[in-house]
Amino acid sequence: METFAPKTPMYPLFLSLSGLDCLLVGLGQVGQRKLAGLLACDPASVLVLERNDPPAQDASLQDMLRDNRVRFERRTCTTDDIRGKTLVFAATGDVDENRRIAALCRSLGVLCNCASTPEEGNFQVPAVARRAPLAAALSTGGASPALARRWKDELAQWLAPRARMATLMGRLRPLVLALGVETGQNTQLFRSLAVSPLQQWLEAGDIESCRQCLLAELPAELHVHIAELLYDLP
């Protein structure tokens, strides 16, 4: 969660971690939250460094450490640990150590999130609300992490009905593109569906109205797919 107000606007970015290597230094409460967030995004690997043994009685932590993408080592961070990593999280309980790691990252051009002194790093982790396939990230620029947490919950509620619409459009898009129609026509179709009452009907569970709308809007070649498009939406 953000904890500082940057001097300049932060650039918002959704980053795929698939196939990428990450480094987490520190495995306290903050580090554990960072590890859970990383694993949820399916990185290729996460090297976890901690000076002390992780608590054996913490079942959820032990489960994460047993993940085959995680390599845990009980030692301090070196320059070689940082090289080749996409993201580094300096989350130890030692402010000076976090600063040292952040400085190494800057010298190597590696993105670093510094838990204790965020201004030493170059990215922050926003509050993220998820309702598959949707994700909404929220930052208050460090003004109020408490408000960010509250609004994250409100965002999750707002996303819930819209996830059905996003799922439907995600199913439809490859079918439309496979027809090989001119790009402008596809754009017009997608925009027409986006402003149609489909979302409201999906929220209300009015599948018949959705079906009639798709019959009216979609090319005849796609009518055979309407049932599967509307099947088992979240």
From TrEMBL:
Catalysed reaction per UniProt? precorrin-2 + NAD(+) = sirohydrochlorin + NADH + 2 H(+)
Pathway note: Porphyrin-containing compound metabolism; siroheme biosynthesis; sirohydrochlorin from precorrin-2: step 1/1
An example Gene Ontology molecular-function term: precorrin-2 dehydrogenase activity
**Which InterPro entries does the entry link to?**
Met8-like (IPR028161), NAD(P)-bd_dom_sf (IPR036291), Sirohaem_synthase_N (IPR006367)
- EC numbers, comma separated: 1.3.1.76
Gene Ontology biological process? siroheme biosynthetic process
Q: Which domain of life is it from?
A: Bacteria
Provide this UniProt record's keywords sorted from A to Z.
NAD, Oxidoreductase, Porphyrin biosynthesis
Name it. Answer: precorrin-2 dehydrogenase
Q: What is the originating organism of this protein?
A: uncultured Desulfovibrio sp
